[in-house]
Every structure is written in C-alpha cells, then in structure tokens.
Amino acid sequence: MPLPLQVGSTRQVPMHVQMVGGVNGTITPVLLTNTMWSYALNWRFRDGKVLQVPRLVSQGVVATEYPYPVLLLVSLPCGIENYCALYALTSKHVFRVNLNLTTTKLLIESTTEDIVMDGEYRRWATTIYNNQLYLSNELNPLRCLDAGVLNCGSLPQPTAKYLATYYDHIVALNCSFQGNYAPSQIRWSDLYRWDVWTPARDNEADLFDAEEWDTENTTIRGGTGLGKINNVLFAYFPTAILRVDYVGKPGVMRVTEKVTGRGNTLPWALAVMDKAHFFIDTEELDFFRFNGENAEPIGAPVRDQFFSELNTDPTQASKTYSYIDKQYSEIAWVYVSTNSSFFFDRKVVYNYKEGKWYFASVEGYHCFHPALNNARQVDQIANQVDSLVGSVDRLVGAVGSVQPRL
Fold this sequence. Notes:
29 strands; mainly beta; 38% strand; four-stranded antiparallel sheet; Hemopexin; five-stranded mixed sheet; globular
C-alpha cells in the first residue's frame, strides 16, 4: 500500500492513494512528492478504505501420502442449490475434497494413478461442459471426470495447454494430436461429442493453424490462453489476440485478428472475467485490460516495481499465475520474486472496481478458490436414515393414499 506522505519529520498529511508516477520502492517516505509513492506489503484498498490483508488460516491438509502441491481447485454443480462438489488437481492426482472436521485432513476420494508427470512445472487446462469437468495438459490427453472416474474416451484425444467450451464444442489451444505438436494450433471437437477430434465430412471437428501470429522474437511460443467475453471466444498469443466465432458448417469456426503488437506472454497469467480479460506482456513491460475490442495498459503504478521483483530465471518467471477474488473485486498475479529461488512468495493485486493496486506476500500456495458450500458425501451425514422422523414410505408417499411430506 502507499505510505503516508510526510512533511518534515513529524507531521503527516492524508494517505497518498492517487498512485500517479509509479512505485518508488527505495526512497524514504519523508522524501515522497505528489507524483511518487512507496508501498508496504499486505494492505488493500476497498470502498475507499485501507485494510490489512489477513493471513491465511489452515483449514485442512492433504495426507502425507499425497506429496504433490494442489495446483487447481474446481467446483462442479452437484444438483443441490447453492452447493457444489469441490475437486483438487495435483500433478499426479485428481480427488474430491471433503474436510474431516475431526482430524482436519482432506479426504481423498476418486483418485487416479495413471496421470503422467515428468518433474517439470505444469498446470492443468480445464473447462466445464454439461456439469462435467474436462482436463488436460501437455503430457496428458483430454479426459472427462465422470462420476469420479477419469474417462479417456475410445478415440484419439489431443493434449492441450488451454481448454474452453464454445457452442457445444471443446476448444483446445497449444496442443498435440496423434504425435504432432502444434503450439499455435486452435483445435475443436465435434458438436456435442467431446471425444471426436478427427475432422470428417459428417462432423464439425476441425482446426485452425495460427502460425502467422506465432513470432520467433518472443521468449515464449504458441498460444498462451483462451477466454470468452460476452460469449465470444478469444485466443491469446505473445503478440496478438485472435477472435474465434462459431459459424457452423462448412467453416465451423472463423478466426480473425483483433489485437496485434501485444499479448499475454506468461503462460498462466491470463485472468478471464465475463466482460474483460487481464494479462501481462513482458515485452511491453505492462499489465493490460482487454474488453473485446482494445487492449489498454493499466499497470503504470506498479509495472516498474513488479518487473524489478519478478524472478530473472525464465523458468521461475513463467510460473506466474492469476486468480480472481470477486468478494474483494480483485485480480491477483502470484509470482516467484528475486528473493525466492523456487517458491511463490509475492503477489501483485489489482482492484478492478477502484483501479487500485497493492503488493502482498504469499506463503507458497499454488491456487485459489473462493468460499463455497461444499456438498457432503452420504457417509459424512451424521444421522442414519433410520433415525429420520417418520418412515421412508411416508416420506415419499409410496403407500396407498398417504400424502408425501417432502
């Protein structure tokens, strides 16, 4: 947060929150002018107030037999209003999350052991279609989580770094199919059939090769993100943003250039909201907001400080990921700073309603999920069926003319 502007050594004037001129992380507060500001960690702006960011409180831990960090938390509808089923993804496992309130252990359910990993840092691409989770990464072909079981389908599936759902198609970007790796390729499945990816006359599976926008002048190659704005899909590259429109047969998808000269250059930095996307361009050294038409820079107050703190090792810098916290109207980019050699230790946060920024420390976490009502499994319900008031046949109205109570 910006520190108070001081005059002399004792008198303070109101908090300097205009953030004009950018961060100066080295100058002492007494020397700050109206076009300069410094910062302290773990303070946020909300509703015109400056509030301290609370430390995270541990609610549970994964059992020691699962020694991999949780990379992603995904919630799926479970048929109960305002409740969902929470799943966690590590580099090796997919499991249902339920907290045992007695032991504070996260219950591991519907786990799988056939996920491929190679020791490199990889995050998961996921999308939800028909209340089912679809997931993939560079090593693992597309799969569907169906009733707690990973279904690979009976036909060849692509591996994908990014996934989206679009007009009843699964769309993949930066993918490999049947042994052919194409980082700039946008590929989509057949209509309604997530497991059909081979183009044919009688289906809508097809692909578009965006090599024209895959420049060799950047440190990262290929597609870097997928996201929709007002139900229009956009594909991100290091120096361009492409619009993807569904047009039906025979073309199925039409791909056009929307923005050129800037794009998302960190693989996991794209933050997707319904009406805007936010991303980082390490070539332009700035943060951007894309509204479906234009990509506008928004990072002037923090860009110098962020890029001076971002780890200089490209492998560590590329681990930077984003998340959205709608409770506080914030978008956060979590990164490995120059003070760390491997662990995530810092984040920069943008309040998209107030246009304010702050820096905060983090403690090595790899993902974020907002608060939710996690549905319990049947065996977690405290009372037995027999202990319910009234008999089962009276509850359901199955005997004679007895009226149901539910």
